[in-house]
Amino acid sequence: MSRPDREAFGVYVHWPFCLSKCPYCDFNSHVRQAPVDEERFARAFAREIETTAARLPGREVTSIFLGGGTPSLMQPRSVGAVLDAIGKHWRVASDAEVTLEANPTSVEATRFRGYRAAGVNRVSLGVQALDDASLKALGRLHSAREALDAVAIARNAFDRYSFDLIYARPDQTPLMWADELKLAISEAAEHLSLYQLTIEEGTPFFGLHAAGKLKTPDETVARALYDVTQDVCARHGLPAYEISNHARPGAECRHNLVYWRGQEYAGIGPGAHARLDIDGTRHAIATERQPESWLTRVEAGGHGVVTDDLLSSEERADEFLLMGLRLAEGIDPGRYTALSGRMLDPARIASLREEGVITVDADGRLRVTRSGFPVLDAVVADLAA
Question: Is the CATH number 3.20.20.70 carried by domain 9-258?
Answer without folding.
Answer: yes
